[in-house]
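Please go through the sequence and fold tokens given here and tell me how the chain folds. Record follows.
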Amino acid sequence: MASKGLPLTVSDTGRRPNFQRRVRQLTFLLLIFSVLVGLGTTFTINTFLSWSHSSGGRLQHIPVNAREILSQCAALKVKPGPPEDFLSRDASERFEPGIRPTLIRNATIWTGANSGAEIITGDILLDKGIVKNLGHVSSSILQGLKELQVVDANGSWVTPGLVDLHSHVGVLSVPATGGTFDVGSRHGPTAPWLRSIDGFNTHDDAFKLAIAGGVTSAQVLPGSGNAIGGQAFVFKLRKTPDRSATAMIVEPPHTLNGTERDPSAPLHWRHMKQACGENLRGYGNRMDAIWSFRSAYNEARIIKKSQDEFCAKAEAALWDELQGQSFPENLQWEALVDVLRGRVKIANHCYEEVDFDDLVRLTNEFQFPIASFHHASEAWLVPEVLKRTWGGTPAIAIFATNHRYKRESYRGSEFAPRILADNDIPVVMKSDHPVLNSRYLAFEAQQAHYFGLQPELALASITSTPATAAGLSHRIGILQVGADADAVLWDTHPLQLGATPRKVWIDGILQVGAEGVVVGKGKEGERWQVPPRVPDWEQERREAVQWEGMAPLGTRKVRGRVVFRNVSEVWVRGERGRGVESLFEAKEGGAVDVVVEDGRVACVGEACRVGERAAETVVDLHGGAISPGLTSYGSPLGIEEIAGEISTGEGELDDPFRKDALHILGDEGGLLRAEDSLQFNTRNALLAHRSGVIYATSHLAKSSLFGGSNVVLGGLSTTFRTGAANGLEDGAVVKPITALHLIVGRATPYAGARAAGAPAGPSLSLEIAAIRRLLLRPGDEDTESGIWWNKAAKGEIPIVIDVGNADIMVALLKLKKEVEGRRNSTLKLVFSHAAEAHLIAADIANAGVGVILTSPKPFPGTWDDHRILPGPPLSNDTAVVTLLQHGVKVAIGIREGWQAANTRFDAAWTALETNGRVNLREAHALASANLEELLGVDDEIGLEGDLVAYDGGGTFDLSSKAVAIIVPVQKHVEIL
């Protein structure tokens, strides 16, 4: 604050002296004054004034806090960044005394340096929280270390700890409850004063899971319902001994506990979340949103200008002009002032071309940079617009294949990472945890590589590139001497499907990898230690750009004879209970021909060789495979086009459990048919078809991110062909009514996840009581409800119950036994979702109940799911292994339509993490034969169900892609 002070002579020529000369003069006078006072000299202010007065000049009053004011003004010019000698530090400020040094020997080290191209073979020494040595570590260095821990990598890969640039871990924590939603604000479109750390829950169950996937750091963002959602922080996911959120921040900004900066400390980057587009509709439309930005930044610009003018006068020693004034600042807007000073890394949620254009214009109007655009579904379509961002091109943080979940994500493309990279735009793969479980951040990079992103850039997209975007590449996301000791030792090359950390260190402290858990069994061999060979997608990338994300997904239908050349494997459906069976598996160099006549395999082997002219179409599979088409279950695939856009789907279900729950006990419950809502040619279904998923069973209930469905009655499911043109096409609907579906569980934890004004839902006991009543007394068969509840009670159709909690499953097993005893029938009961089924595996098997794991990669999303079996590297067993060992028929499914296209990779991952206890043939059955048997559609699909031809590898290889579908029921082959 300004105050009355000491006069200082200033030239009255009307011109300000040179700034540096004036500062030196003022400092000299103040120094003399302080020295004399310190010596005890009888020295009055008037004496000093007279001494400092120049003849012909006028007097200025120096405020007593002039030094502080000048220091504050000088601080405005300081830019964030590490000290020049940062990497020469001897220890990290995060080092915990007593932690022993660790030497990782014989490693293949991907450092993240040189744009991801640097690979070193050798050792890594971790000590005092930093990387102390890299490559060859001399014995003289090791001799001075006490209690050295040695880990032999045996040539395996070591990478930096993964960095998740977009996460809500800790502020949208799990298991989800109504009290853990601290991710956004309803108090206006602009709230730069809010901070994610103030809602950061240190008890989030997701921390350990994320670390188990190799994630060591995450930028925790406020929500995207505000144009300016608040300040973000980059956290290490390791909890510290004092258990505070503050201690988990990587580099706390000076503003964390006040606005005064320690001049002796380096200035750390601050982080801010912004958003645009549909999420801001609570405060108006896009025009309202951009005005809110402009209004907020104008406030900040006014304050910044006032500060600059104030400091210009102070630095010119024009103290009288500042008399009675204080340094201009406003706690609400100070973060945006720092944005304008280039001291904040902005993470900007933005989807569409119009949004990017809006924000790029905004940055140029107010002259501030954006570090990264997030979600960015259409960024790949406007690279030149992105390059016009003030201050430089932002990084683009995106999903690999999670698209079409709302209208503005509709044009998202799996080819976006490669297209962005080809335009020299930094690519970041992110989780948006818990939208995607950040434990599988590496899977996002694997998919990006599969669709064409170069391997070094794919690895960089989850390490060095996000670290650079956050301004922290001097310490995280990279392995170099002096950087933080965050490292991951993998069982395979990290871009191999199913790659799992053997050990994870954060700040040199082992977090995951204790003795006793087996990791990597079944993945031995050199091929697992190199980046996977992936298909050529050049044509698809060109078409994606040409059609602006809407390339046609149709197929070319060929009748007559089709010859598949260079086929290494042929698999077919076996008899019931036998899954898939091998018809042919080539030995080294033993690929053969497969001849298809009118949609049926006519011949396999050397005897089938025919000339080029003898077939209408010849398809070279380059050592690929032919295998049964996969089946998808669990999502509204084919019921909706865009998940978050009600106008493209079924709409809200009328659920009698919510409105007239007591009447349902009198058998007034209604069952609706999913077949009546089927729509064909949805992009999710067509992309699934092109990925080898030929059949899908869908019901009407939708799951939300925050805990199951909003209804109890899921209706009557239907099974259809994903590639069918319409419902009248031969074979389009495989089974019109497949099963009766129910959803049983506790209430959705977040009111915001329910329909506006909808109640929380019936009690758990009421749900089970009503189901008991409907199975014991289903009513007359002159109503839809009566017909199908009777069939379910007699065991004529499966009853599929979406349930997560083991105790609820026990109650349902008791109910099954009660109904069967009283009706003398056998219910065909299947548990789907079934997150805790492993806890009662023996009981499920004894009851003859099947299980469909719709979240095969387990996650404790709600309280009903919180006792998951995580699998390696946290546990030896997985849910699939446990259930199979007890004799339970198991299959896998999905929760959302976009996931269907990833079914073959989900099946492969499920098998790979079992340490060889589930082979790939059995994995195939998880997503085909087992699933079809549990749903009762195996007879309809039959032994001659559709087959899929893969070019370049087998069903589960990252080297392969589906190129043709053999369709017996329609007597043709579809060329993709």
Remarks:
- Residues 630 and 928 are 5 Å apart (CA to CA).
- The chain is about 25% helix and 20% strand.
